[in-house]
Amino acid sequence: MDVAPLTVFHWWFVFCTLPGLQMTEIENIYVTIGSDVNIKCPNAKVNTWQYFESKKLLCDLLWNGQNSINPNLTASDRLNVTSDCQLLIQNFTTTDICTYFCYEKKNDSKGYKLHVQLRNLTIDGTDHFGVIQSTEGTNLTLRCIVTGFLLGDKTYWTTNNKLLVSGKTRSLNHTLTAHRSYNMNEFTCTTENSKETQPLIAHVRLNLILKPSVFITVSVNSGVRKKGMDVFVRQGKDIELQCREKDNESKNGVIFRWLYNGNMFQNNTNVIILNKIKPETSGLYTCNASNKAGRDSDTVNIIVTYFPLVQTEDITFNGMNRPRTLNCNVSGEPNTYILIWRHYTYNNQLIRMFNKSTSGMLILPEGEADDLVFEDSGFYICNVTNGIPDDCGKLWQSGKIKVMVEGSSFEQANGRMNMGFPLDIFIVFRLLIKHYFMGSHWMYLVIDVFIKFKTQEKKTFKTTLLS
Ligand SMILES: *[C@@H]1O[C@H](CO)[C@@H](O)[C@H](O)[C@H]1NC(C)=O
Ligand SMILES: *[C@@H]1O[C@H](CO)[C@@H](O)[C@H](O)[C@H]1NC(C)=O
Ligand SMILES: *[C@@H]1O[C@H](CO)[C@@H](O)[C@H](O)[C@H]1NC(C)=O
Ligand SMILES: *[C@@H]1O[C@H](CO)[C@@H](O)[C@H](O)[C@H]1NC(C)=O
Ligand SMILES: *[C@@H]1O[C@H](CO)[C@@H](O)[C@H](O)[C@H]1NC(C)=O
Ligand SMILES: *[C@@H]1O[C@H](CO)[C@@H](O)[C@H](O)[C@H]1NC(C)=O
Ligand SMILES: *[C@@H]1O[C@H](CO)[C@@H](O)[C@H](O)[C@H]1NC(C)=O
Ligand SMILES: *[C@@H]1O[C@H](CO)[C@@H](O)[C@H](O)[C@H]1NC(C)=O
Ligand SMILES: *[C@@H]1O[C@H](CO)[C@@H](O)[C@H](O)[C@H]1NC(C)=O
Ligand SMILES: *[C@@H]1O[C@H](CO)[C@@H](O)[C@H](O)[C@H]1NC(C)=O
Ligand SMILES: *[C@@H]1O[C@H](CO)[C@@H](O)[C@H](O)[C@H]1NC(C)=O
Ligand SMILES: *[C@@H]1O[C@H](CO)[C@@H](O)[C@H](O)[C@H]1NC(C)=O
Q: What range(s) does the Ig-like domain occupy (predicted)?
């Protein structure tokens, strides 16, 4: 049988059967990889070192010989023991991390468990993934703690290679206001010591609950419209309003609320669907988004567009009333229109066309004050559009007004006279119909005839009684 296992067994046996041994004291010792470690047993009277778990003997000063290290250990060449029985470990490695046990081999001696661990740096509040959760806008303290602090340790916080704070204390705080730009940023804590070859480094990543930042998109019959404040949509379409987060991260725990013209409309959804919209659907739709970090809102103005409806009434002008105005009552959305008026004879001959206008009111040009302007009579067609075609695709809608001028006995004549000749000749002649002798003087009934072909606004007939 091999001797080594026997020996180990022997010492294990001795250790376990030591009658008065009390393992009361436990101490933590922090070391750095690569450093030379000097472990002193708290009890000055000590002669034996052992690995606690495996019970392997490290040294026994009762052994003969100067170097009392057990030569059979893998780490023997890096181990040494001083004359006063301090254990020395050179070039510390992870394999040296364990619990060491020292005691004096005699009755009633005290044994000491020494946990030798790596010096390290911890950041308060981090999870398994090295992340700290917080909320945008809150004040947050990043706290870095040196376990196994040594005199001469210098600790500092950095981010993106920028120094934030430094200190020579066991723990170092860096307080910041969690700005949204810090989300997912990494902050690093470093501890250096001139005696140590390797600095201690710890990282933390901030995971912030961001204040919502939302915008509304409007989809019309499934096609997405670019969002502006005003969104024009044809009557009868289906629309979908979607409240989107700029940082579309569902983790932000956003609660959505919709308002229609400032009144509660719908809750707990970021989408609203409106089918077959009507003019009454028009209005301001606001999405309010909130979470524990704050709130945000966006508003769109939905304007349901429809072609103009034209209402008219026939009108009879009293001979002298001025001005003579015609009305095409138009209602449509958008409510900006282009109107073109045309004047026709009763038998549909075009007499004149007026300049384009934007209002439904037409003021007929005035003649002289005493001019009855019978030729204003006829049909007026107002032709109007707001850019929205009707259901048949017609862009122009029209209204028709029959205009009569009171006292006009020449309606039919008017019809005949305005024949739409291409010439622009002005003919004036006077017919002497009859003359009477009224006692002292003559009365003449005359008819002045003015004819203007392709007439615009000149008087045509004028009946006068001259004395
Ligand atoms: C180390 O091993 C050698 C040979 O295997 C043995 O002679 C010696 O006693 C051992 N030493 C100790 C301290 O166990
Ligand atoms: C152990 O220490 C002694 C003196 O304390 C020294 O002579 C010896 O060389 C050291 N051994 C090793 C392996 O460092
Ligand atoms: C310490 O050990 C490492 C490997 O464990 C080795 O690379 C290094 O050279 C050693 N340093 C010294 C000073 O012995
Ligand atoms: C040590 O303990 C043993 C057994 O209990 C006892 O016989 C012996 O006298 C003790 N020795 C001393 C020095 O106390
Ligand atoms: C650092 O030390 C603490 C305290 O000993 C320990 O709880 C932690 O696990 C260690 N962390 C690392 C990364 O070694
Ligand atoms: C955060 O700290 C600053 C001063 O450092 C203070 O002005 C601010 O009110 C604090 N904010 C909160 C939310 O506590
Ligand atoms: C560091 O922050 C902690 C809370 O995270 C606080 O308890 C401690 O007092 C702070 N230390 C210093 C030096 O400000
Ligand atoms: C964010 O939204 C865009 C567009 O909707 C999408 O392409 C992208 O995958 C989303 N990102 C995440 C992280 O959800
Ligand atoms: C939405 O929630 C608010 C507040 O929780 C409540 O006052 C309102 O009645 C709700 N509206 C609807 C449409 O559910
Ligand atoms: C909606 O958000 C605005 C500001 O973003 C806020 O003033 C208003 O109180 C919010 N309304 C509701 C019902 O949450
Ligand atoms: C046009 O509308 C006005 C006011 O809305 C009304 O007074 C008028 O009677 C209407 N005219 C026609 C022709 O409908
Ligand atoms: C209305 O005007 C447009 C353009 O001037 C024309 O194409 C259309 O025929 C007109 N419609 C009527 C009914 O006059």
A: 136-202, 212-301, 308-387
CA-to-CA dists, residue 22 to 25, 27, 110, 189, 194, angstroms: 9, 15, 5, 41, 39
Q: Which of 57, 70, 72, 81 to mutate to test the pocket of ligand 1 (most atoms within 8 A of CB)?
A: 72
Mean pLDDT of the region 61-68: 66
Give the CA angle between residues 18, 23, 25 to the nearest 5°: 150
Q: How far, in Å, is the centroid of ligand 12 from the Cα of 322?
A: 29
- Ligand 11 binding pocket (C-beta < 6 A) is 311-313, 327, 329
Q: How many domains, the chain? A: 4
Q: Could you list the residue range(s) of the whole structural domain that residue 181 is in?
A: 121-209
CA–CA separation, 326 and 349 (whole Å): 19
The neighbouring-strand residues paired with 341 are 382
Atom 8 (ligand 6) nearest CA: 139
Are 383 and 341 a contacting pair, CB within 8 Å? yes
Pair 46, 75 in one domain = yes
| Assigned domain for 451 exists | no
- The pLDDT assigned to 104 comes to 81
Q: What is the pLDDT of residue 425?
A: 38
Query: Ligand 7: which of 173, 175, 189 to mutate, most ligand atoms within 8 Å of CB?
Result: 173
% residues pLDDT > 90 (the chain): 44
Q: Are residues 268 and 181 in the same domain?
A: no
CATH of the domain at 263: 2.60.40.10
Verify that 29 and 92 share a domain, yes or no: yes
Residue 208: C-alpha distances to residues 147, 249, 434, 452 (Å): 28, 11, 104, 84
Distance CA 391, CA 38 (A): 95
For the segment 310-334, what is each residue's pLDDT rounded down to a tens digit?
999 999 988 777 888 999 999 998 8
Find out whether 204 and 187 touch, Cβ atoms under 8 Å. yes
Picking from 154, 189, 209, the residue at the C-terminal end of a domain is 209
Distance 135 CA to ligand 7 centre (A): 19
pTM over 0.90: no
The reply to whether 425 falls in a domain is no
Span 363-418, pLDDT tens digits? 988 876 666 677 888 999 999 999 998 888 899 999 999 999 876 544 444 444 44
* Residue 276 or residue 391, greater confidence: 276
Residue 164 within a domain: yes
Residue nearest ligand 1's atom 5 by CA: 4
Q: Which atom of ligand 3 is least distant from the CA of 93?
A: 5
State the Cα–Cα distance between residues 205 and 133, nearest whole angstrom. Answer: 9
